[in-house]
Amino acid sequence: MKNIPVLLMLCLVLTVPTNTRADVQQPPSQAAPSWPCFHGPNGNFSATECGLTLVDDLRDAKLLWKSQEPTPPGAAQSPRYGNPGWHGISLGKFNPLKIPLADGGEVTSGGGVPLPGGGASSLLVADGRVYVSYFVPSGDLLDEAERAKREIGPGMWVPDYWRVAADDVVVCVDAARGKTLWKQVFKDNGLNWSDHKSIITNHTGAVFGGRVYVIGSTCRVYCLDDATGKLVWESDLGAEHTKLEQIKAKGLAGKKAFGGINRGHCNGCTFAAGVLVCPDFQGGLIGLDGVTGRKLWQVPKCLAHHATPTRWVHAGGESVLCGNVEGKVRCLDPLTGKERWTLETGRQETSLSIAGDVLLLNASNETMGPGDEKLVGRASGWKITSGGAKNLWEHTGDERVGFVSGGMSGLPVWKDRAFVRNKSGTTMLDVNSGKVLARFDGAKTDQESHGYCAEGRFFHEPDSQHGSIHDVLMLGTTADTFKPMGKPWNTPHYDATGYEMPISHAVVAGFLYLRGADGIYCWDLRKPTR
Fold it and tell me: Where's the Pyrrolo-quinoline quinone repeat domain (predicted)?
């Protein structure tokens, strides 16, 4: 593993954007390879290209490390499943698994009692560091009803699963070796979300310009120094924070753990022009000054349930793109929240994806027929500037391939190729013309699918919610290589997954960083050189 820090340093030769004041418009800076927010550095689930050659079969990927710091799964315990109800892995199935390391050693995944669920925030990677945020149940007060169930019937009582309060936690680990660099615990600031289908399903933060920003379990917002973990400022998301604090107070008074908001909180945040752009978890966005945490603006009802706002870097500076289910797509000034332009188009369900200055959208809200409410989207491409959007193409008739946002997380893109996924397969499109370049029927979505791209490869996960990352397909990104490379891959360790919204995966300089059920795992996807 001695060559890992050297490679990371070689890939970090570009400058990292500095943290800018929100009242000064700064020109965009070209970022070093990183995964700074939910949908990666390019606003489309693609990694920064480093000119690397990846393995031809994911089963040849090598595990480099498991993090020194244990971290919890995403979706976890639930009163529905009993004994004690850990989603996806019962106590009898969380047996220790020995996994070989690339250097000849081995690590253990699983064993003992699984940790309580801590929310499904995705990993962030920047400047040779990996960041993860979650909550840990804390305090003396437990859910009295759950305690009573275990006292009168069979099963194992695990008090930590059913505490009412929680700590908010942020951990930073060395991206080269998995060693803990710092850990920040916000004692008793949080709330224990205790049902697996309603447990926090995103809350992914952002890391930019020497700061890491995270959203806590009661919608507090923390800004930390990314190198030391020192708290720079703390703010909150207004009405949603107030609501969750009231729920916490009621739960403490009544000894009742919070069952969660049904499959809610599916939105992460981004950072543009010195402003942290956060979901308000009521369908809108809030802009916070990245330097001070001061609230700058709020735009209501502009964000779909499964969407994270998209940072768009362009000739005129930086903008924020968002869409909603009513079909309105907005380009916002990140400093003021004011609309630069709007489009009235099809239903947008997930994060908007861009390919440079081309925005990919659903074009219509057609139905299958009379009385059938199932929507059929038509893909469309738009050339965008800071002053407006011009339609480049729109699918009609036989060209129709379905919603561009299949799979909940959003549309993966590699350079000028986009990958439309649905239950019938995946179609590769040219983003500039909309032309269908290739199709593979075997890359089907099932439940909450996830897709991402790196170094000329497209990765397809059929299902990222049911306790494991499995049957991952890797395909090429040209018409003649758009077919599986190797066999489907199943991670040999226990995984952390969300429910309703998949956890996205950071790929930086050929290394794949995955949240596991008991820690962070780093996989080397690079093809060995002889």
Answer: 167-353
3-state secondary structure of 100: strand
Q: Which domains does the chain have, with CATH numbers?
A: 3-524 (2.130.10.10)
**Distance between CA 368 and CA 376 in Å, rounded?**
7
pLDDT tens sequence across 133-188: 999 999 999 999 888 876 554 456 778 888 999 999 999 999 999 999 999 999 99
Residue 504 makes CB contacts below 8 A (sequence gap 6+) with 38, 39, 40, 45, 122, 204, 409, 450, 452
Under 8 Å CB-to-CB from 526, ≥6 apart: which residues?
A: 52, 53, 54, 55, 510, 511
Alpha carbon 460 to its chain's center: 15
The Cα–Cα gap between 493 and 498 comes to 16
Nearest C-alpha neighbor of 281 from the set 192, 200, 362: 200
25-52 pLDDT, tens digit each: 232 333 579 999 999 999 999 999 999 9
Q: Which tokens sit at 392?
A: 């480049």
* Contact in structure between 285 and 268 (CB atoms under 8 Å): no
CB burial of residue 13 (10 Å; 0-12, 13-18, 19+): exposed
Residue pair 211/229 in contact by the 8 Å Cβ criterion:
no
Round to whole Å and give the CA distance between 45 and 360. Answer: 13
Buried b (16+ CB within 10 A) or exposed e, 27-36: ebbebbbbbb
